[in-house]
Design brief:
about 230 residues; alpha+beta; 9-stranded antiparallel beta sheet; 3-stranded antiparallel beta sheet; 12 strands
């Protein structure tokens, strides 16, 4: 695995989604998109045309049902679009929680969040109708850098180390204005899949617990990678 900065410019600036739009559907059902509900908790369905006008992909944003994510034992996990809908990839199936009950506390809060959204068409951390809304998903732009997730995945032996630090450092990065506007890529060397950053969702919005899901997508392989960030 290797995180890197692409030469290509960002397809769109960071955009916060606070409610359903014509390009984003929160809490999609199996009638909206086919997926394995024993493996995935759906967060949203994003029209990828917002980042690539030539694409007609509808990308499922979801959290795989794995306690290893919240236990800190699994830094990333992937799922792909198959003939039977979105499924966790074979190499990650063993990382899923064998019993849904193991994930019960998280799935229970997720259901509460889904019910709150169905009633109010928005979400907040407390699930209190008097509190202000928080983003359901943020797509485009660059992911947060200089955190645990990228420190773990960054290849210190790579040739573009300067790009990485320039993109992070607005104060002293000599080329910050350039590299902070480049796409962030993630290359899975083991499976030969090249991903591009898609967006981020906050675990606290959907699950009782902190952290964030950093989401990458490979349009070529129709594969989503979710990387856990806990700082």
């Amino acid at each position: 695995m290797a995180l890197y900065i692409k030469d290509s410019a960002l397809a769109c600036p960071a955009t916060k989604v606070l409610q359903a739009t014509d390009f984003y559907k929160p809490f999609p059902s199996s009638q909206d998109v086919a997926f394995n509900d024993n493996q995935l908790l759906p967060i949203g369905l994003l029209a990828y045309s917002k980042l690539d006008v030539n694409s007609d992909d509808n990308v499922l944003i979801a959290l795989p049902i794995s306690m290893e994510i919240f236990d800190g034992d699994l830094p990333y996990i992937s799922y792909s679009l198959t003939d039977n809908g979105w499924q966790v990839d074979a190499h990650n199936v063993d990382n899923l929680s064998e019993e849904k009950e193991d994930f019960e506390d998280y799935s229970e809060y997720y259901q509460q969040a889904a019910s709150f959204y169905a009633k109010h068409q928005r979400l907040n951390y407390s699930l209190d109708e008097n509190d202000e809304s928080v983003p359901l998903f943020e797509f485009g732009g660059q992911p947060i850098l200089g955190c645990n997730w990228d420190a773990y995945l960054w290849d210190e032996e790579s040739d573009d180390e300067t790009r990485y630090f320039d993109a992070m450092d607005e104060q002293s990065g000599e080329n910050y204005s350039h590299y902070s506007t480049r796409e962030i890529g993630f290359f899975d060397e083991e499976h030969n899949v090249d991903f591009a950053y898609l967006g981020t969702f906050c675990f606290s919005t959907y699950f009782e617990g902190g952290g964030e899901g950093i989401v990458f997508y490979s349009a070529k392989h129709k594969r989503v990678l979710v990387i856990a960030e806990f700082s």
